Queue: 3 jobs
Job 1
Amino acid sequence: MPARMPVKPPVLPALLACALSALPASAAHAQAAQPATASPPAATTSQAAATTSQAPAPVPVLLLGEVHDNPDGHHARLALLQSRVDAGWHPAIAMEQFDRERQPDLDRAQRECKDAACVVAMAAPARAGWNWDFYAPVIDLALREHLPLYAANLSRADAGHIVEHGWDQPVPAGVLQPQVDEVRTGHCGMLPDGMLAPMATAQVARDAAMADVISAALAAHPGDGVVLLAGNGHVRRDIGVPVWLRARGLAYESVGFVEEVAETSHFDRAEVVPAFAREDPCAKFKAPAKP
């Protein structure tokens, strides 16, 4: 039975800001300091990639995940999306990287801009902590093929409000505890226990918001379909956006781009890409060794 999340007492602002700074990327997959671009990847291992990448999507909603800082994953995802477009599919593209409040700016950017740099400057001027080199090829594809772009994410301010004050929507049974476990792991076990459920609830709210945007995009572009670009956690069948799409009766396919074979079971299909060489994201939380 779904349960409504109770309003929780305010948490320390500094701690909340620190925790939210890890969103949208968890500490386990935070972007490395060095620049990276979506260059051609090394050889990859995939599940059924050879067949499904060559045909238009058989369902109206295609959910494409990512490890936020992995250039090989971004390149493989772009190749899949490009192949579907080349085969004749012209979906709207919903992106986690743009907050919902920026949709009017994103609409204006699509009318006025000739390249991705212009779109980002107009619709995400603060750059929001994303490595836009990874997303520029997708935005350029959308501009070139006249694919509508949708801002799909909750803002950090909205997520923070949920962490502070709770969420008045029912959380589906079986979703919250796995999200709590993900938040605990993603923050290296360093969040106070009292913040785990509120942070997890904010992630659930992000998934619900993305499903809302997908539904609206489908209504606005019937017959064209929608692609969502988001972190792998958001496109997981068991706890992510698919939970909310199923509640709406919407068919979808979720595709993960993962670094470990063990992660592939969370998706309808997954492609394993080489792990990106990154510093230990939990190192800054570890106590120095005693002399």
Job 2
Amino acid sequence: PIMGSKTPDPKIKVDSTPIQKTPLAKADFSATLLGEPLRSLATYQILNPAEEISRVWTKLFAPDAVRQNSVRRRAKMQERDFGAGGAPVRYPEPDVLVLDPSFAKYKIPHSPIKRLCTGMLWAEGPAWHRAANYLIWSDIPNSVRHRLIFDDGHVSTCHTNSHFSNGNTFDYEGRLLSCEHGSRSVIRIEHNGSVSTLANRYDGKLLNAPNDIVVHPDGGIWFTDPGYGSLGQYEGQKAEFELKEAVYRIDPATGSVELVLDDMFKPNGLCFSPDYSKLYVVETGSSHYPDAPKNIRVYEVKEGVSLTNGREFCSMALNSNGKLLEGIADGIRADADGNIWAGSGWVGADYDGVHIFSPDGNRIGQILLPEICANICFGGPRRNILYMTASQSLYMVHVETTGAHIA
């Protein structure tokens, strides 16, 4: 029909012959999906739907096949331009990879990965403020915090001279909590704008350089202290360590700083499980210790204040086309179903981005980015946008899940 008219265009011939459904053999079905153009599944009768879905899944979407398809796709097209002036990506979004059928429900085929802004030196620490609908994150070397206003997409610098802040989060009163490399402390920005130092010492000794931070419903504040900000001048102030790298808890009643674990080389990103019964902690010690594993560990949270039964949750090693890729994770978040989403990198194409692990530690999905992804968080009014701070840029993609926690 012509636009705006209910009368059929006489130039267009419509074939009104009824469609005859015919049984489709297994080989024909696979050929249709894997080779020949797919006309309409409505014209076929699949003889054994469950068996066919499983078989085609294995051929199309098994991890190796997904990566091989990604490599072939990248070889056939120019490097994707994620910028605002770049050409739109053809759906389904090609850089959100379903490695296991359980991840398929989280991918939205017509939700593109978007680069929202660029120009930072090392973007880190994204955190979402629910009440005010904004995202905050750090640019560590530039010693500033930036803010993205959700309603109009406006990006601005909201805190200059942030003392090389790294990880950020919000407490249950909406106050910003931040790990500062430069001051070697954990601080809180009060509602009136004043700054309170919550922790800068343990056992009388200066902290190394607090890195990432989460809050517990009981008001406790948990943070990691791997010391990266004291290793040089680029992301903090070069200084000697006074303490072993560790994870600490700030007691909400007394304000005391308590050691909760020191059995890792360099504990980095951390997050709780949705029910707060587990704490996940990223090991990044391989940056400076040859014997350090490249993994994420998990601990049982005992009575909300201590940890027990530490063990490996997952390895970050990835087999890709017969090659072992050994990158590391950094910042992590849990979704409402208990999956762990990990900003990852230091390998290159087909690895850098976000790796998603099921609650039992199996890698089920990937989001490929053209930059190393340092950290992530769920945001947006419905908490279904994954924000990714990746090297010099901030990215986003909608997903069919929500973040498990407040920031």
Job 3
Amino acid sequence: MSDNQHPSYPPPPEGGGMPPKPVGGTGPQQPAAPPPPGYANPIPNALPPAQGNVPPAQYAAGAKPGMVTAIAVLYLVGGIFSTLSALIWAVSSLCIWIPWVLEIVAGIWSLTLGIQMLNNDKLPPNRLVGALLIGAILDCNPVSMTLGILIVVFAGSQDVRNYYQAHGIYY
């Protein structure tokens, strides 16, 4: 027996190489033999066990978490502030200051999404609109930027994800 072979493992086939595969299937599956003493697993389990992947039962029953409503209200308020700020910048700069276009797009999109989210429980939040609201800092609008940051953070929370997963929506 060679030095690198454990006594409980079968010896390699004659001539080296792999043993022949059985014909007609592998037969009944047997549990794997335990590793030899002192054996270190070369590929440790890098991922922790899944936690929170199963949505709580209360979401399947229809209870909506407060963060979903908060995201819709943040969309509405951010849309109002962005649209007003964009219009003020467009008028005061005689449309020379170009970033007002980004903010008016973000404001209108945010308003429509906020109204739709309040009316439809199964419409997931769009983090791109939150990112556009963060871009409102180009028009010196810290209110919309703060609301955009809150939208992105709230939309990524596990509570909100579990709610939408319970309804079969993965975003």
